[in-house]
Automatic annotation (TrEMBL):
Residues 1-21 form the signal peptide. The keyword Signal applies. Keywords: Signal. Coiled coil: none annotated. This is Alpha-L-rhamnosidase. The lineage of its organism: Bacteria, Pseudomonadati, Bacteroidota, Cytophagia, Cytophagales. The keyword Ribonucleoprotein does not apply.
Length: 804
């Protein structure tokens, strides 16, 4: 029964997203676990600028045999090649990067939020794990020219042999990165655009004349009074690129906002050489240039041998002022307002409207990006029977505004969302669930990771540590890309099979999560401004957040210390028809991945959507549990046509908070935990000024929010930067519990799970399955629980699968 149920769900999941034509071989779940199918195993970068550096010389077949037979990988990644070495500058000019572009820092810079994650003591750069690459005795053969006949002939040979071997292939769309540069052939008119601002102080009264800057597309001309902050839209007074304005009395700052084409850096890594990801015409040019030739030449392999495409680093990074000429049109469609007088808020305060203006502007940009490159390429994939995947930059970072706009919006079109696992361990760990939790909302069964460049050689301790944390956070397909140069590259079959067993059990099904963690996107957008003096050069990209911005830290506490899984809940999701009130709970209504939340956590934030807060209040009024941390909201996010409505909305936010928590959010709060406020329906609300894992755990217990899985002694190891974590999924009537210990300490505890089950231990290291004999059952408040011993050595993981 167990084998049949697990296999049925697995096949249904694969069929639902049409990744391949032939079904998985008819084996029992135990047989699949012992010898996982190729589609579950990791993929290896084989052809392209990356893969060519790491494959041995010899025939295509001999190189593939090495990957398939010796390394045990399930497939490969192919990509366009270029026969000519890059002719530009090896590196960009000094000062090109406005901020640090690498991973976590050992300590946070002055002025940064104290909640930002840092490296653990003794952490190493991933490069310190590598052995130097040996020089080849003979130089490798030159690669085929970009999109040449020779390239496609070689690609067909690779695909034909991979198909013969039953292996799966992933297609990456670029020679280098980021995607969209088309090997540096993108016409200038389609390149990334930036928003430029020029300004001049005008003392009125006077007739002011100004010749506007060229070239570029004029977005707005605004005069702002230096004292009152009154703003006047001067755009209609521009004729033949000349502004003539009868300035009234007072000091006025006249600001001109122009959308211009970004100047290429000319280095091998040049984000400004790519397409305007928000411009459909530019993106369609790239699709016609790169994707369409592949559809013509190798389209017969789409959906069977080639199971997925992959794009890289499409987003806002590395220029915070990334813009597009059609921005105003989109803004007017969304809000029915002219954005002109809101443009100054991107750089400075415009008074009470600042927060709502920034939120509306940045959210519109996020919408344009989401409906641009990722959606248009996905639409092409649907027409060509191929699943599209890819990632934005900084998908794990706390501040999305200067990285990707909004990760939840970015991934909504893609059938297979992807995280980017780069830099030194544990960079990104606290934010990977931003991608996988969004996939949960959209009911997407597979979440991929571009990885291996952080822990090669594969199969070493650092690799296992990293991967098991990915699986515990909802990622369930692994693919290599951009591997560092090292002789100890491929690992062993043991490693590939270990990965395959994880993916086989964790793809598809329903994740059990009973805590919702509100995503404070409005607060992040309201805080952000271009060229902010406080955003100093020594701060990492994607880290400029408000002081009390603790949402990622709360997530880490829940997983690593409290041992409670949770779901990041975007305000748009909360307000959608998919999230409904279900008695004292919030229900995510999906066909497969449904979830029921017994508690909602409001992380630190000053600005919040009033509409979202009103739904949270309705949940509380029906008996829901709300826990707030660090800072209570005081300000509404909504943009209003009449500025006089701003104070009214803010007062509504403050009144709701006061009613729920019994606290005036406009006044400072002492450290500690507030009294629990209980309403007539037994709804409960509490505020924690300075949260930590111990306080959060105690508070949830006091609120009687029982854990789905609990552990005696609450083991919380941190050695080696690792942790002990758990993931619970349901497939059919079966429960799959994943336990991962990425620390350097052994874990010995007793696990307690809801329901009466007959647990079996499924070991991903060996593929063996054994029944757990020492099992106890007990009842609490009418509910049956199963208890069983759990022992994990350092840096190991295991599954417990129920056999009812």
């Amino acid at each position: 029964m167990l084998d049949r149920l697990l296999l049925t769900v697995s096949l249904a999941t694969l069929s639902a997203i049409s990744l391949w034509a032939q079904p998985v071989a008819k084996k029992t779940a135990r047989e699949q676990f012992k010898n996982p199918a190729y589609e579950y195993r990791p993929s290896f970068p084989f052809q392209g600028a990356a893969g060519a550096k790491y494959t041995e010389t010899g025939t295509v077949e001999s190189q593939l045999n090495n990957i398939y037979d010796n390394f045990g990988f399930g497939g490969i990644i192919v990509a366009p090649t270029d026969s000519k070495p890059f002719s530009g500058k090896a590196n960009a000019e000094p000062g090109y990067m406005k901020h640090i572009g690498s991973g976590l820092q050992a300590t946070n810079p002055a002025g940064a939020s104290p909640w930002l994650m840092t490296l653990f003591p003794g952490a190493k750069s991933y490069r310190e794990y590598l052995s130097p690459v040996s020089k080849a005795s003979t130089p490798p053969a030159p690669l085929p020219a970009y999109l040449s006949r020779e390239y496609f002939d070689q690609l067909k040979k690779i695909l034909a042999y991979s198909k013969e071997r039953g292996r799966k292939v992933i297609f990456y769309d670029e020679v280098g990165y980021p995607s969209g540069i088309a090997n540096y052939t993108t016409p200038e008119k389609f390149n990334r655009k930036l928003l430029e601002k020029s300004e001049e102080v005008v003392a009125g009264p006077q007739v002011y004349r100004k010749q506007l800057p060229t070239p570029g597309v004029l977005m707005a001309v605004v005069a702002m009074n230096s004292q009152s902050l009154e703003r006047i839209d001067l755009t209609p007074q521009v004729t033949n690129n000349t502004l003539v304005w009868n300035a009234p009395a007072g000091n006025w700052k006249v600001m001109v906002f122009t959308c211009v084409t970004a100047k290429r850096v000319g280095s091998e890594l040049d984000y400004r050489a790519g397409t305007d990801y928000m411009d459909p015409e530019a993106v369609n040019w790239f699709i016609d240039k790169v994707y369409e030739p592949h559809a013509r030449e190798i389209g017969s392999y789409f959906g069977n041998t080639i199971i997925q495409t992959f794009f890289d680093d499409v987003g806002i990074f590395d220029e915070e002022r990334t813009w597009t000429p059609k921005f105003n049109e989109k803004f007017k469609q969304r809000f029915g307002l002219n954005p002109a007088t809101y443009y100054p808020a991107l750089w400075e305060s415009i008074g009470p409207e600042t927060d709502a203006a920034r939120i509306a502007l940045f959210d519109t940009r996020a919408e344009l990006l989401a409906d641009g490159f990722p959606k248009l390429v996905t639409d092409w994939g649907k027409r060509n029977n191929i699943a599209v995947s890819g990632h934005c930059p900084g998908n794990y970072d706390p501040q999305p505004v200067d990285m990707n706009g909004d990760p939840f919006k970015f991934y909504r079109a893609q059938p297979i969302p992807m995280v980017d696992v780069i830099f030194s361990y544990p960079t990104g760990r606290d934010g990977f669930k931003l991608v996988s939790d969004g996939a949960d909302f959209y009911d997407k069964p597979i979440v991929a990771a571009e990885t291996f460049n952080t822990f090669s050689p594969a199969g070493k301790t650092i690799g296992y540590r990293r991967i098991m944390e990915l699986y515990a956070r909802g990622i369930n397909r692994l693919m290599g890309s951009g591997l560092p140069q090292t002789d100890a590259l491929g690992g062993t079959k043991t490693f590939a099979e270990w990965v395959g067993r994880h993916s086989m059990l964790l793809q598809g099904g329903r994740r059990v999560s009973d805590i919702a963690l509100f995503y404070p996107i409005a607060d992040l957008e309201a805080f952000y401004q271009f060229d902010a003096p406080a955003y100093t050069k020594d701060m990492r990209w994607g880290s400029f957040v408000p002081y009390d911005n603790d949402f990622l830290a709360i997530g880490e506490m829940l997983l690593g210390e409290v041992h409670r899984d949770f779901t990041f809940l975007h305000p748009d999701f909360l307000l959608s028809d998919k999230i409904t009130l279900k008695g004292p709970a919030l229900a995510l209504n999906n066909k497969v991945n449904s979830q029921t939340y017994k508690a909602l956590i409001l992380p630190g934030q000053r600005v919040i959507s009033l509409k979202a807060l009103q739904k949270i209040k309705a949940y509380y009024d029906q008996g829901g549990v709300v826990v707030a941390t660090s800072q209570l909201p005081t300000t509404a996010a909504e943009l209003v046509a009449d500025s006089r409505d701003i104070n009214a909305n803010n007062e509504k936010v403050q009144a709701i908070i006061n009613d729920m928590f019994g606290i005036d959010p406009t006044k400072p709060r002492p450290d500690g935990v507030s009294a629990i406020r209980t309403n007539k329906k037994q709804g409960k609300a509490v505020f924690i000024r300075k949260p930590d894992g111990r306080i959060v755990s105690a508070t949830l217990a006091q609120l009687n929010v029982r854990a789905d899985v609990a552990f005696d002694g609450n083991p919380s190891p941190t050695s080696g930067g690792g942790m002990f974590s758990c993931l619970h999924k349901k497939k059919g009537k079966q429960d799959i519990y994943y336990f991962a210990n990425s620390s350097d300490d052994a874990v010995k505890t007793v696990a307690e799970v809801e329901g009466r089950i007959r647990p079996e231990l499924w070991d991903p290291a060996t593929g063996e399955t054994t029944r757990i004999e020492q099992v106890d059952y007990l009842k609490k408040n009418g509910q049956t629980y199963t208890r069983f011993p759990l022992r994990l050595k350092a840096v190991t993981s295991t599954f417990v699968v129920s056999n009812k």
